[in-house]
Amino acid sequence: MTGKRKRVGLVHVYTGDGKGKTTAALGLALRAAGYGLKTVMIQFIKATECGEHYAASRLQPYLRIEQIGNGFVTGEPGTPAVRHAAHALWTARSIMVSDGADVLILDEINCAVACGLIGVSDVIALLEARPAHVELVLTGRGAPAEVCERADLVTEMKARKHPYQQGVLAREGIDF
Ligand code: ATP
Ligand code: MG
């Protein structure tokens, strides 16, 4: 780290239908971890292990990935998916307010809202609870307008071409 003084953190949103949202967040995480910033990614939706989990285990204690979403995306009240999403949100808030992360990435949180697992008001409450030094990154398709309005940086990945359209399935080490 270049200095002990707390930095000023910003809020990023990576959204859109093109590939690159989670990988952009992981790129940021790699960069932050390189400077010894405490970096935590909470995955709201995915259920399976992927390359980033193995890489994070080699970058401890600077990069930690917690997978809390259970992979299901129906928003019926009381379902496991809704409980997992609520737990992910609670975990994010706890990490933030206990100074557990300098960079906090909430992967697929936008999808969790779009699927009705959590409310937009929950995300806004989280933004309002953000300590000034925390860099907060929210990824996933369909970012709510209210969240984008409150963010400092919004990037929309636009799908122009994807190998999936040519029948190329997700590849280990590249897509997961
Ligand atoms: P990545 O994790 O590769 O950065 P992403 O976070 O932008 O992708 P998601 O919306 O989270 O994309 O989609 C999850 C999966 O779908 C990933 O394996 C990703 O490679 C793939 N994907 C992303 N965009 C597209 C697309 N336009 N068409 C088909 N598959 C896609
Ligand atoms: Mg993603």
Description:
The protein has helices spanning 21-34, 51-58, 80-97, 109-114, 120-128, 145-150, and strands spanning 11-15, 39-43, 63-67, 103-107, 135-139, 153-156. 35% of the residues lie in helices and 16% in strands. It has a single domain (11-156), classed as 3-Layer(aba) Sandwich (Rossmann fold), CATH 3.40.50. It is an alpha/beta fold. It has 6 helices and 6 strands. Helix 2 (51-58) links the parallel strand 2 (39-43) and strand 3 (63-67). Bound molecules: adenosine-5'-triphosphate (ATP) and magnesium ion.
Set down the secondary structure blueprint.
Layout: E1 11-15, H1 21-34, E2 39-43, H2 51-58, E3 63-67, H3 80-97, E4 103-107, H4 109-114, H5 120-128, E5 135-139, H6 145-150, E6 153-156
Parallel strand pairs: 1-5, 1-6, 2-3, 2-4, 4-5
The structure holds adenosine-5'-triphosphate and magnesium ion.
The site of magnesium ion has 4 residues, from helix 1.
